[in-house]
Amino acid sequence: MGMGSLDDRVRMSDLLRPEISYERPRGGGRAIFDLLGDLRGKRILDLGCGRGAYRLALERRGATWIGCDLSAGGCMIIADGSSLPFPDGAFDGILSAAVLEHLPDPGAMLDEARRVLRPGGRLFGYVAFLEPLHGMSYFHMTHLGLEYILMRHGFRPTNVFPAENAVPVQIERIMFPKRIPLAQPLSRTASRGMTQCLLLLNRWGREVLTLLRRLPVETRRSERRQYRQLLALRHAAGLNFVAERSEVPEHLVAGYRALVKED
């Protein structure tokens, strides 16, 4: 497949939104709860909660946890995400952890999530990107795709940051069709170390090219930061996100249209 007619116009700054933080917090995905601030007394819907893996983490922060899924296991409410049995504005926050990629119509769930979330409430969680096919996973998302679908359905992203690098995950899935107690963790550690070395070499190579261009110091700093963020996003197994229920202006979801020059 060849390049699109506008691909050569895309700059790093076109791929990163200034209003979104792409920095991965210390603690990784678990630190997403810290980005939400004080959760005491807040009603949090865990939409697609599975066996309730995040219940304790939320309740320790003082939140009221309500688990909802398609079948009983660890949930309180059995319901389809595209038709929720709750009134408008019933929740202060909604957790969607590894759910969106498993939905044939993720937009329908996002519309319902927006309805049952109070104005200014936040949707947060995780979506797969370069994870291998798992279960019935339909729509693995780039950060651009995640931002687009969130904004299209009335959520303004404030944080999008990568989970672990996908390469060790891919290697592990290829090598171990079943869990092997000792060999699997050793392999994962080795592949993570190798991947970190390769990413570091990549960034060093980019830095040399940037120095050769003799850019101003501030420009060089900005490009270094953007490249580091994009490198992590491009090779992420999945993406963590926080988004606020809000009105989203049409121009914010323009995509390639923003690069078209009017004559």
List strands and helices in order, with pairings.
Layout: H1 12-15, E1 43-47, H2 55-60, E2 64-69, E3 77-78, E4 91-97, H3 106-116, E5 117-128, H4 143-152, E6 155-162, H5 166-175, H6 183-212, H7 217-234, E7 238-245
Helix pairs in contact: 5-6, 6-7
Description:
With 263 residues, the chain is α/β, with parallel strands linked by helices. It folds into two domains: 11-164 and 236-250, Rossmann fold; 166-234. It contains seven helices and seven strands, in the order αβαβββαβαβαααβ. It has helices at residues 12-15, 55-60, 106-116, 143-152, 166-175, 183-212, 217-234, and strands at residues 43-47, 64-69, 77-78, 91-97, 117-128, 155-162, 238-245. The chain has a seven-stranded mixed β-sheet. Helix 3 links the parallel strand 4 and strand 5 (117-128). Helix 6 packs antiparallel against helix 7. The longest helix has 30 residues, at 183-212. The two termini are 29 Å apart. The model has no long low-confidence stretch (mean pLDDT 91).
